[in-house]
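DEPOSITED CHAIN:
***
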Amino acid sequence: MSVLQTLGGLLRGRVTGQPVPLAMTIALTYRCNLRCRYCQIWKEVGPELSTSQVLAAVDELHAAGMVRLGLTGGEPLLRDDFGDIVSHARELGLFTTVFTNGALVPGQLPHLRQLDAVLLSLDGPREVHDAVRGRGAFDGAIEAIRLLHRERVPVWTNTVLTSHNIDHVDFVLDTARRFGALAAFQPIFEHSYSVSGERVEQLRAGQQRQAEVIEQLLRHKRRGAPLLNSVPFFERILDPAWKQTPRQCLAGRYYGAVSPRGQVAPCPILLQARDLPDGRLVGYVEAFRRCSRQIRCTGCNCIATVESDLLFSLDPRAVLNTLGHMVHRRSHQPEARTPLPTGDAP
């Protein structure tokens, strides 16, 4: 992501008072090859934007100031035109990432090499990861990390903290160290594609234990561990009244999301909100300007939204954290052939 372009977009937005879509997520599909215990996004399968429609949306948002594009799903690698979309984004000079479960990475390596980072879900050792995502999911994720590491593609792991994996953060951190990756953590929270709120509550770790682990991660971060999260992110999660802190939610002002059908939401979490404006009908920039007017949100623990709020509000520690990740990406070097971790701690 161009720092100067980002700063220029923030300045333009503050001077004009108009939303600027600096960072956009496009959910390419709701289809998914896994059935994770806390997610039911696969039930939303329906019409999807065509290749030309996706590229047109990217062009329009780029012309309006977009400098960062996140591709997600469902499982975005299920799209036959994934490579065409990635190539187009790279031609525009966008900082481009994809969020995947890793199972389809081997067949998409030529396209994944073009990305600035690949985000993969990693819940913990084999027995923990597979209990959430299905048998064989762990081996697929680790093989994907190994292949991407070999190809010198930066990897960011994402771990949703639940009662099942709250005691396995060291395994995830050790895996990140082994493969030169960055690890991200966030507590489970209810969103548009969650299973029932009751089920989410059953999966949530106890408040005291979760706070202990967040404190542990904060100490790791301050000692230089390969964590994607910024220090202020962990501080926000630790604050029992963090929803009432001065952090301003900038969803719909500097970042947003596009659904597989073309609706535009302030953030990926709200893609199932009712009456979202349709970018195909009114244009994606206009839809972005309209999308947050009728939506009120009480806050979330999502690393993507909280870190974006901190970054675009120019929190100095969040800015330095992002700059550090850019340096990490540019200096990313694979080590010698690395044995795969097993279900035990590496």
Notes: The CA atoms of residues 19 and 253 lie 4 Å apart.
